[in-house]
């Protein structure tokens, strides 16, 4: 580091206010060369709270520097600690550090508060008060943990309560096998170490819940006695087990644990709690809830947001931690527990206190005789700290008063200091939460300048990198630093140069022209000292041709090229690596100046090869892969988009141009066609890339034209026939200097929005177009064709300006010019605008109307004079009224006539005309009345058919909505429509104007008629309306009569639409059908029916393939028949083995009343025998004729129900099977306690 000094703290005689100048002393700490006299400075001390391990020595650090070297002493518990009298205590030579050997001693004897003092003839510095305490890991108090029995679903807390250690122990829970207990959102460990169960489960039963405490300093672990937990499920407990447990044995008996319940808080308790935290510490808030299901925890802060950047959740969101707490973190924090039964809230009121913390700590002062300085000790805290000042370790109120020393709370002012008044001042700031102690010396010296930076030092940097030229100095008074280049040009702070407070000269972007000799001069009133340094700006090292990916056949040679450009004054070193390691020590690898050749390639040569070009200032590297393959035909060429360019470099920089250079990426077998250069304006449009220019694909440089006041960053994209590459990495930022605007705003317009104003608008310049800060617009205006001077007004960067007090609708000449802090834009163009319009003052005269027919008229008027328009004439509005309705027509432009279409015939109209401009409508002209002649009427309002009969229809209609004249009557035309939709002969009838109904007779029954009706005036008939109707209606609901003796006939019905024929579909070929037609009049309940006709549908040859003739079907049937035959044979064999089976004897033997045999008639069973082959089975169904044929044996499937009357249940079981058991429900019909019958065997097979 370089010594730094406060350059502005010097007292200048003759300037009145001392305090104003002394404020400049608050700078970085000062470094005094050690060969000069200076008070002690503490450089190393132990922390304020020191906990030691009793197995090791106590080491209390205290190091200090000064001239002469300081001596050290100690106090313990506020009294002098004589180190030499205690053989166990050693103070290191040349240091104040104490080493206390506590082996064989009671370590407690050395606990206490220690403070170190460093003293020399110029002052005394003191260390912090260091509290020394021995680490402790006390044993767990002996206790016996009662076994806990808890009902499933209840909440549970297992307390740890470890012994208080120093420092506090780390708590964790394990089992007997030293496995940590799994924690989740249901089971969690609180900050105090207790284990919380939101609800217990049967698997929580265990006898080895063990709490462990690990004490950090001694690295010892102690354990609590195991806790046994038994979780009971009350629903599964019988009365005997329940009686063994008293309700008081349950841990949470007052709850209804097994049922679901709303959340409640186990920690903290109650609706609210409080928490105090110190500023800078970590705030830990904890909420643990019980409930079933397990509640979810969420956190919010009432009236504020949680600090997302400093907060974190732990313990499954049950703990909220906020680091580096500040005053804004105080407030009410709400934790919310939620499950599907409800919500619970708890509010933690957090207050933030603060131990003292520095706002501005006192800094060392180096003063020349008769100078004045100030020490400030600015602290903050909550509560507000108390500040105490000390001089050389003695309270300032107890030291002799000095002339020129003044203490004002946190400030000490030292005026006109004298030689020999050097001292060390201590500032102590304390409140109930801690203290701060700072030493700051005042060293009174008279010392001429000295430059501490070595002379003739040479600095070398790469182009476009920052350069730092150091000029570290010392003197009292503090020297002033001045820089010169080449011993003649004074350097001042600016965009290119920055002179730092410590004297260092920074060149932010070094260029070749910055190379040369630099001189720094340090000056004070005791002398002057200069030092020379040299800056050399070097060209960067760049790899122009990078090694390329190689695919080489085994046994061939591979060559990687690596051509480099570097500064000729720097010595480059080329290094090749394989897979980031050294090249193999093999003579097949030949390294040349700019290439690497590998001969007789083998498989082990595969890998990534990297060339690294190093100089003393920079390096560049590039890599390529080598793939070794078998000797195969040349693979097909793969074309891909190019790799992005790299190594963008800016050179030849001027105010309006710069040269951009780049290195092309791999073309991937498709030559680059062009390069696209884009820029980003980091000042006005950060993040937006804009196309700037394109250059040919063979070029690697581009001269770019730039705009002023833009923070440019460039990137390049390559394009081949496949497409564009990804963008290159952006170049470094290049800032152009501000300048006056190059253009003025566009789209300048002047339009009045109200009478007496003129609103001048324009499209503002963008930030890119502004060319500099402070963009404004000069707005100029004057009335056209007048010799008035231009009125002018400068406005901020807005898009409009309003001129008030203008005449109504007069032309104005307008100009808008851009200007900024660096000048005005070019002379603007003049545009013409108009001030605001007002309503027209008069309507047109001589309004005349010419009626052409009942729907069209033409209106004429005299145009109004321009002054009365008071604006731009938009046209004329024609307002016409007929009785209560009104119509409006607008005629655009300056005209004197217009047509009025869409009029209603035989109507009276009133008409007037108004003038329109942009402001609105003027007063109306004189009203003009006209009448339209008669016309043909509109269509009748409706036509409907009512009361249809078999041979008559009644029609009803309404008069037209628009008669358009005097109605003279109606014309009705009608004609029948047959089944093919052909129209029959038409009949025409006429009716008077007051007729609205007619009944037509002598019509054909079941016939569709179409009607046409129109109204007429003296001008003729109007439009017609039509309607259709049948003479017979609603025949679809007619039901066929049911004749005696035909109760089982199933007549199918189809709807007939009053036609004379109907086609029946879906009939089966070769089948005869009876057909009849039924009709009924809705007004007459009598049913009319035709005679029945027998119709036979002829048979049709089947086009389908007869499945019975297919070979596969015949084979399948044969296989099924054979299988059934085998099963029947097996069943017969088993049956014949059974012989006669006396059912009753067997039932008597069992003595079971549930299975007594029954007879068919009286409910009792008889006996059956396998020899009764020709009798029906008892319990089976007898044929309807009451006889049994001889060929119907008991093995016939007919007897088992495979006939017309099904005797099987839905599942295939046989209802009438014989059994030794009582018959059961049908769904048990296939069960039998006896030997299976053939039918049972068949059912089993199915």
UniProtKB/TrEMBL annotation:
<comment type="subunit">
    <text>Interacts with SHTN1; the interaction occurs in axonal growth cones. Interacts with isoform 2 of BSG.</text>
</comment>
<dbReference type="GO" id="GO:0098632">
    <property type="term" value="F:cell-cell adhesion mediator activity"/>
</dbReference>
<dbReference type="InterPro" id="IPR026966">
    <property type="entry name" value="Neurofascin/L1/NrCAM_C"/>
</dbReference>
<protein>
    <recommendedName>
        <fullName>Neural cell adhesion molecule L1</fullName>
    </recommendedName>
</protein>
<dbReference type="InterPro" id="IPR013783">
    <property type="entry name" value="Ig-like_fold"/>
</dbReference>
<keyword id="KW-1133">Transmembrane helix</keyword>
<dbReference type="Pfam" id="PF00041">
    <property type="entry name" value="fn3"/>
</dbReference>
<feature type="region of interest" description="Disordered">
    <location>
        <begin position="1141"/>
        <end position="1246"/>
    </location>
</feature>
<dbReference type="InterPro" id="IPR036179">
    <property type="entry name" value="Ig-like_dom_sf"/>
</dbReference>
<dbReference type="Pfam" id="PF07679">
    <property type="entry name" value="I-set"/>
</dbReference>
<feature type="domain" description="Ig-like">
    <location>
        <begin position="263"/>
        <end position="351"/>
    </location>
</feature>
<feature type="domain" description="Ig-like">
    <location>
        <begin position="540"/>
        <end position="627"/>
    </location>
</feature>
<feature type="region of interest" description="Disordered">
    <location>
        <begin position="722"/>
        <end position="752"/>
    </location>
</feature>
<keyword id="KW-1003">Cell membrane</keyword>
<feature type="domain" description="Ig-like">
    <location>
        <begin position="356"/>
        <end position="443"/>
    </location>
</feature>
<keyword id="KW-0325">Glycoprotein</keyword>
<feature type="signal peptide">
    <location>
        <begin position="1"/>
        <end position="29"/>
    </location>
</feature>
<feature type="domain" description="Fibronectin type-III">
    <location>
        <begin position="744"/>
        <end position="838"/>
    </location>
</feature>
<feature type="domain" description="Fibronectin type-III">
    <location>
        <begin position="644"/>
        <end position="739"/>
    </location>
</feature>
<dbReference type="InterPro" id="IPR003599">
    <property type="entry name" value="Ig_sub"/>
</dbReference>
<dbReference type="GO" id="GO:0030426">
    <property type="term" value="C:growth cone"/>
</dbReference>
<keyword id="KW-0812">Transmembrane</keyword>
<keyword id="KW-0472">Membrane</keyword>
<comment type="similarity">
    <text>Belongs to the immunoglobulin superfamily. L1/neurofascin/NgCAM family.</text>
</comment>
<keyword id="KW-1015">Disulfide bond</keyword>
<feature type="compositionally biased region" description="Basic and acidic residues">
    <location>
        <begin position="1142"/>
        <end position="1162"/>
    </location>
</feature>
<dbReference type="GO" id="GO:0007411">
    <property type="term" value="P:axon guidance"/>
</dbReference>
<keyword id="KW-0732">Signal</keyword>
<feature type="domain" description="Ig-like">
    <location>
        <begin position="449"/>
        <end position="536"/>
    </location>
</feature>
<dbReference type="GO" id="GO:0005886">
    <property type="term" value="C:plasma membrane"/>
</dbReference>
<dbReference type="GO" id="GO:0009986">
    <property type="term" value="C:cell surface"/>
</dbReference>
<dbReference type="InterPro" id="IPR036116">
    <property type="entry name" value="FN3_sf"/>
</dbReference>
<keyword id="KW-0130">Cell adhesion</keyword>
<feature type="domain" description="Ig-like">
    <location>
        <begin position="40"/>
        <end position="127"/>
    </location>
</feature>
<keyword id="KW-0966">Cell projection</keyword>
<dbReference type="Pfam" id="PF13927">
    <property type="entry name" value="Ig_3"/>
</dbReference>
<feature type="compositionally biased region" description="Polar residues">
    <location>
        <begin position="726"/>
        <end position="736"/>
    </location>
</feature>
<dbReference type="GO" id="GO:0007420">
    <property type="term" value="P:brain development"/>
</dbReference>
<dbReference type="Pfam" id="PF13882">
    <property type="entry name" value="Bravo_FIGEY"/>
</dbReference>
<feature type="compositionally biased region" description="Basic and acidic residues">
    <location>
        <begin position="1220"/>
        <end position="1230"/>
    </location>
</feature>
<keyword id="KW-0677">Repeat</keyword>
<dbReference type="InterPro" id="IPR003961">
    <property type="entry name" value="FN3_dom"/>
</dbReference>
